[in-house]
Amino acid sequence: MDIYLLEAIINGVLLGGVLALLALGLNLIFGVIDVVWIAYADIVMCGMYAIYFLDVQYGVPLPLAFLIAIVGMAGFGVLVHLLIIAPVLNSPPLNQLLATGGLLFFLQSFATLLFGTDFRNIGVRLPVLEIASMYVSFARLIAFGIALIGAVALYLFLKRSYIGTAIRAIAQDREIVGLMGIDQRRIYFVVSAIGGALAGLAACLLALQYDVHPFIGNTFGPVIFMICVLGGLGNMIGGFVASFIISQIIAIGGYYWSTELSYVFAFTLFIVMMFIRPRGLFAS
Amino acid sequence: MSWTRVAFVIGIAILIALPAVASTYFLHIAIQILIWAFIYTAWSLMGRFGFVSFGHGAFMGVGAYVPALLWTYWGVTPWLGIPLSVVAAVLLAVAVGYPCFRRRVVGHYFALVTLALSQVVLLSLNAARDVTGGSLGFTQRAVGHSWYALQFPEKVYFYAIAVLLWLGGLWVWQLIDRGIGREALEAISEDEDAAASVGIDVLRQKMRVTVISAALTAVGGAIYGQYVKYLTPDTVSGVAVSLQIVFASIAGGIYSLLGPSVGSLLTLSLTEGLRVWFGTNYIGAANTIYGVLLVLCIIFMPQGIVGTLGGLRRRGRPHAKPVAPQGTDHSLIRRPSSAAQ
Amino acid sequence: MLSLAAVSAGYGSFQALFDVSLDVSRGEAVGVIGPNGAGKTTLMRVISGIIPMRQGTMTLEGRSIGELPAHRMVERGVAHVPENRRLFPRLSVEENLRIGAFIPAARAGFQERLAWVYDLFPRLKDRRSQVAGTMSGGEQQMCAIARALMSRPKVLLMDEPSAGLAPLVVQQVFDLVHRIRAEGLTVLIVEQNVQQVLEVVDRAYLLEVGAIKLAGTAAELKGNSFIREAYMGL
């Protein structure tokens, strides 16, 4: 096999890791609260800006900046739920989509207002490893590793803890969890916080590799949507697997053409896959 | 002589008289309001039946760029270019809509797929930057006053075109509203299975309204492109444009004839007002405020302006009340039956 | 112990309960019988807090509970076994039981409580890892009751426990109610199966079209000619 193709495939797998985090977050929120955070990618963007300013502007050591970003985004997630989602919980789903859509618009505009449209980078230059004459970015490798750890941690939390089990339960039958003494609203907050934290974690991992600008959410946002639809909305495992499928398509497409066209390629294949299995590849 | 008739006549009179009294600037705004009103009306053809597309930016983008590119590079007249762009948009609509409808991709899934679609079109336009100029924009080859190239320095011409376009859109809306197809579509939006079981060809009906909606949106995009002559991918395609279309239509009220147009009037006046107020001082400030108002509007005025004002006075069958049973309906317009807290 | 006075409730513009008053004393088993659509399930939901009361008062051990939301009722010692079981289908039996013990008071003695419940329901112990949605109707009902018991309730509300179950299984369920009573719990059962439920309760109320039509001891109701004709087919 062509060594460059193999390199692309490996990079695709690594990219898939971070995408998987976001897919998990989006699916978690949808599975429990039944709302799609259209602005999810833009929340990641906020996290990336936070990291940039903490690290570059205020000289906060990077690991600390990462931590602050994750916690901050968790809080932001709760805020989003409180201010935007909770008021429209009983509205038609269209209104909910528009509300988070409005948030997307707001975040992108506000970021433009505050930071301008320049691209910014935290300037971390991690080495590029050479493995069997293939070049793999160390940053990407770390990102993948941490993403996997995050995914496993989430899995364990959902499986083992009381709250985690409650979260899984509420996704299966929202109405009667109250009968077990579970406060629905509290669970929503927890889930929103976790979703935000995952976005914050993804922000850390992306900040290592990419520049940030107000509209960066538009590049991977639609990809996350494709992943979640492909894996089945609310299906955490499906989303996890679909992340790697889509990231592979993008990587391979990018190898043969350009990165931008690879998105088109991915979308085309996505439509085809929709045709074959409309409820997602892993309809539950 | 009913009030509606009187209002209609007055409205037409105002429209005709406007170029005589309005300044160039106001005509400019009016043209945009009319073109966008046309596009919003086109979107509502689908939206009112619960087929909420977040991807109309794709059709508008195709409609805007295809005639512009054909004219600038190959001298193809927009009179030919626009129909071609409509064909392209329709093909896109079919390519995405058919698998979705055939396999019952509805509700949230449909919204996300269409969102991805509009973004992919934007990305494609960016990727083809050698031809389209990418995010730096594309300026059409200007030839002054020309019917062949559909370019007119004098705003009056485009104003007339915009008015005719808008009226045409309203006419199509009426056609669908009064036609048998409307009942079928409403049945489908309530419960697809039940509709199919009484013999309604669900797929055909959905495809038909989608194709019409996409085609009209493309025409709107094309006229818009002809008017502004300078195009960038994110002004005519992408997530923001798609969201804008959905929001403005909803804000104005999608179940009434003039609702989307009211939405256009309001949103454009608002953005223009904000832009004037902020000037070039704070880039993004106007949009930020707009975004905030968007969210507030959704939270506090979910029925839309016309809907809220119209209320019970609304003609035609009002949409089913929230306590209706769920059935196999995945419409985004239905409230969840078991209300979360 | 549990007392409702002049309670009215409904859904939207539809009123389901009119001026309902009933009492359950500590250690008693009380039944509520009536036809379909009488409002029995609504009654259960009002008591457990899923649906708010419109009018009236509700007290538990003297303390008012009328305004409490569902998840607070559990802390007060009211457990509700919902109509149609409503297990969490993709969780295992043990996970369902675990969720039943969500409140802090119940988490403390979880293992001990679990052992007690498995003792009452040996079949569940055999199936502890089985996914709840794959069990039979009778087993699901056992699991639903067990789940409610995990929260250490004082009052157990059971909504149509015999619904959709084979006669033999129904018998098992009602035998269980005997055993639960023996453990000292107070039970309020809503049932369509009049014959069976009157064998198990001390007193009962007849609910028709949202209002209490009759009340009395089980013996009295068993002998009542109206009940015998309309509900027991005799």
Question: Could you describe the 3D structure shown?
Answer:
The complex is a heterotrimer of chains A (284), B (341) and C (234). Chain A is mostly helical and 284 residues long. Helices cover 73% and strands 3% of the residues of chain A. In chain A, helix 3 packs antiparallel against helix 7 and helix 8 (217-231) crosses helix 9. Chain A is globular, with a radius of gyration of 19 Å. Chain B has 341 residues and is mainly alpha-helical. Chain B has a single domain, classed as Orthogonal Bundle (ABC transporter involved in vitamin B12 uptake, BtuC). Helices cover 70% and strands 1% of the residues of chain B. Chain B contains 15 helices and two strands. Chain B has a two-stranded antiparallel sheet with strand order 1-2. Chain B starts with a helix and ends in a 31-residue tail after the last helix. Chain C has 234 residues and is α/β, with parallel strands linked by helices. In chain C, 41% of the residues lie in helices and 26% in strands. Chain C has eleven helices and ten strands. Chain C has helices at residues 40-48, 70-76, 93-100, 104-108, 110-120, 122-126, 137-149, 167-182, 194-200, 218-223, 225-232, and strands spanning 2-11, 14-24, 29-33, 55-60, 63-64, 78-81, 155-159, 186-191, 203-208, 211-217. Chain C has a six-stranded mixed sheet, sandwiched between helices. Chain C has a four-stranded antiparallel sheet with strand order 2-1-4-5, covered by helices on one side. The longest helix of chain C is centred in the last third of the chain and has 16 residues, at 167-182. The model of chain C has no long low-confidence stretch (mean pLDDT 89). Classes of the chains: A mainly alpha (284), B mainly alpha (341), C alpha/beta (234). The interface between A and B is large, with 63 and 59 residues.
List the helices and strands and how they pair.
The complex is a heterotrimer of chains A (284), B (341) and C (234).
Chain A: H1 3-33, H2 40-57, H3 62-85, H4 93-115, E1 128-131, E2 134-137, H5 138-160, H6 162-172, H7 184-207, H8 217-231, H9 236-256, H10 259-276
Chain B: H1 3-21, H2 24-47, H3 56-74, H4 78-102, H5 107-127, H6 129-132, E1 138-139, H7 155-178, H8 180-190, H9 192-197, H10 202-228, E2 230-231, H11 233-236, H12 239-252, H13 259-278, H14 285-300, H15 305-310
Antiparallel strand pairs in B: 1-2
Helix pairs in contact in B: 2-7, 2-10, 2-12, 2-13, 3-4, 3-5, 3-10, 4-10, 7-10, 12-13, 13-14
Chain C: E1 2-11, E2 14-24, E3 29-33, H1 40-48, E4 55-60, E5 63-64, H2 70-76, E6 78-81, H3 93-100, H4 104-108, H5 110-120, H6 122-126, H7 137-149, E7 155-159, H8 167-182, E8 186-191, H9 194-200, E9 203-208, E10 211-217, H10 218-223, H11 225-232
Parallel strand pairs in C: 3-8, 3-9, 6-7, 7-8
Antiparallel strand pairs in C: 1-2, 1-4, 4-5, 9-10
